[in-house]
Design goal:
It is a single chain. Helix content is 18%, strand content 47%. The protein has 227 residues and is of the alpha+beta class. It has a 15-stranded antiparallel beta sheet that branches.
Length: 227
């Protein structure tokens, strides 16, 4: 009897752990834009007034383990010129700084300029759910945005930085694309951004089965004590 109950409980626990077909998307990390006179902006892409290409990055610390679903940057659409594409990626960091090598990106997507449009709250959202990128609580990652032939303004606030990451930018020469410097931290502000994570949610039937198993085990233990 004891072995049978142990087997049943083991089965229930296994089902509870591995039967997590449902997932809840949560807002994990964010830096909210404030319109209080502290608004600042940085240019990403081919700057129209000089021979410079600018990439921007925002590092963040994962709060909930799961799969990274989407990330949004608060962007100013009036800064977009011409055609071309924006390139968005998620990459590791080294000592909190985005790694320089673009080939080390964990996820990369290309967004045509025509689709670089903010939602009703002003955020351009990059959906990376199809990549099924697993992230762990406490991991420090970087969201990097580049452009090949166009540019846009990404906004943030000064004097109220996001405490679990930093904003970065790097510059290259437009003629030969040689880097003029690596990722350098912004002094006192961060970009407006949001990260969304899918966290696993146990199926209701699995919870009920586990509960039934625990009740049965408790009843068996009570009978043993009475004897």
């Amino acid at each position: 009897m004891r072995n049978a109950l142990a087997s049943v409980l083991t089965t229930f626990c296994t089902m509870f752990i591995f039967s997590q077909a449902n997932a809840a998307m949560i807002l994990d990390q964010f830096n909210t834009i404030k319109f209080d006179g502290s608004l600042a902006s940085a240019t990403v892409g081919t700057y129209p007034f000089g021979p410079t290409i600018i990439d921007i990055a925002q590092t963040f610390t994962v709060g909930e383990s799961g799969t990274l679903h989407k990330i949004g940057f608060y962007a100013q659409p009036t800064g977009i010129l011409g055609g071309g594409n924006f390139i968005f990626d998620i990459r590791p960091t080294m000592k909190g700084v985005p790694v320089e090598d673009d080939n080390l990106a964990l996820v990369k997507i290309i967004i045509p300029v025509s689709e670089f449009t903010p939602d009703e709250n002003g955020y351009v959202l990059f959906d990376i759910s199809s990549s099924h990128l697993n992230v762990s609580e406490g991991a420090i990652l970087a969201a990097v945005l580049q452009s090949d032939t166009s540019y846009a303004n990404i906004n943030g606030n000064i004097y109220d930085p996001y405490s679990a990451g930093r904003a970065y930018s790097r510059y290259s020469n437009a003629q030969d694309t040689t880097w003029l410097g690596g990722f350098g931290a912004q002094a006192d502000w961060d970009f407006g951004f949001k990260t969304y994570v899918n966290t696993p949610v146990p199926e209701p039937s699995t919870i009920l089965l586990l509960g039934a198993g625990l009740v049965g085990l408790a009843a068996y233990g009570r009978k043993r004590i009475q004897k």
